TrEMBL record:
This is TetR/AcrR family transcriptional regulator. Residues 14-74 form the HTH tetR-type domain. It comes from Psychrobacter aestuarii. Keywords: DNA-binding. InterPro entries: Homeodomain-like_sf, HTH-type_TetR-like_transc_reg, HTH_TetR, Tet_transcr_reg_TetR-rel_C_sf, TetR_CgmR_C. Residues 37-56 bind DNA.
Length: 188
């Protein structure tokens, strides 16, 4: 594309911003947080480095936008699962497990929004703090239905299954473990 054509195309800042966030998330999952650079994201989207900087003044601002996007998607997935769950007891935990553990065989990078969150948190203490705030707020909101030790154990096990899966450690039957975790969340 010539520069002349670049000026004639219709400007779509929200679509470009969305593409920048999605490509930064993809790079994070495939190559690691350290590989997320303005140039790498610009190349992936097909814009200039200045185009990235137009939307995000710093790499930290870009990473925070990726994190916020992943949290929003994860939260929407959890909320939708909770809306569809007819049993109040353990509903948040079941939704958390379903949003965390992918039973598909798509591969590590396409697993879910939780994958992006975990990889970002592993590389950034500030993002870990933000995740903790989100998580504790959700636990406080669902204290009446999701405060039992079995439910805490199920959430922690779901995180461990995700990490094992992401690390390529798959010497277990994920579907069977998933079923056992869901069983832990049922009222007694």
């Amino acid at each position: 594309m010539t520069m002349e054509n670049a000026y004639k195309r219709k400007k779509q800042p929200e679509l470009i911003r969305r593409a920048l966030i999605e490509q930064a998330a993809r790079i994070t999952l495939e190559e690691g947080l350290s590989k997320v650079t303005f140039q790498a994201v610009a190349d992936a989207v097909g814009v200039t480095k200045g185009g990235v900087m137009h939307h995000f003044s710093t790499k930290d601002a870009l990473i925070l936008a990726v994190f916020d996007d992943a949290v929003a998607k994860f939260e929407a997935e959890v909320d939708e699962a909770m809306r569809q769950d007819p049993v109040a007891y353990g509903a948040f935990t079941r939704a958390y497990i379903n949003a965390t553990i992918s039973l598909s065989e798509k591969g590590q990078v396409e697993m879910n929004h939780q994958a992006t969150l975990y990889v970002l948190m592993l590389g950034d203490s500030h993002l870990r703090e933000l995740w903790s705030e989100w998580f504790y707020a959700r636990l406080a909101r669902h204290q009446d239905t999701d405060d039992a030790e079995d439910l805490c154990l199920a959430r922690l096990a779901a995180d461990g299954i995700w990490l094992s899966d992401f690390s390529g450690i798959q010497n277990f039957n994920k579907a069977a473990l998933y079923q056992r975790l869901i069983a832990l969340t049922q009222p007694r």
